[in-house]
Design brief:
Pfam families: DUF4440. The protein is an alpha+beta fold. It has helices at residues 19-35, 38-44, 61-69; strands at 45-52, 58-60, 73-88, 91-104, 107-122, 125-135.
């Protein structure tokens, strides 16, 4: 996957990389998570992506995909409770609050999570370069 160098973002294709296409990418990413579509998730994640979880631990792309590939994490419901989308200097940011239901390592989970994802332009569209998930207190 080849990303667009930051130095060239001034000439960025705003038809491909704007808040509308970022909203669409976030929608497709959530759908891929719900479908446990490892191939689609792989395409959405930059090779150098890092995800910081609610406990403060950080995992890379391989570890994130392994959780989905092994079906350690399976989501049966994703309900979006809120969303903010920004494109600043060619970098996209989505902040979503989701109610998620499913299983993690065989244990039932139901939680409200706040996710912040940093997206960058790439040849295949928006890809996630960094993400953070926090548990929202009930």
């Amino acid at each position: 996957m080849i990303t667009v160098p930051l130095a060239t973002l001034g000439g960025m294709d705003t038809d491909r990389f704007n808040t509308t296409t970022l909203n669409e990418a976030e929608n497709r990413f959530q759908a891929a998570m719900l479908d446990n579509d490892v191939s689609a998730l792989d395409a959405f994640l930059h090779d150098e992506v890092r995800f910081t979880g609610p406990d403060g631990s950080t995992i890379d792309k391989a570890a994130d995909l392994a959780v989905h590939r092994s079906r350690t994490l399976l989501l049966s419901e994703i309900d979006e409770l809120g969303r903010e989308v920004q494109v600043i200097g060619g970098i996209g940011v989505t902040r979503v609050t989701l109610r998620v239901v499913g299983t993690l390592a065989g244990d039932k989970i139901e939680a409200t999570m706040a996710y912040t994802r940093t997206w960058i332009p790439a040849d295949n569209g928006w890809v996630i370069a960094a993400a953070h998930g926090s548990l929202v207190a009930p």
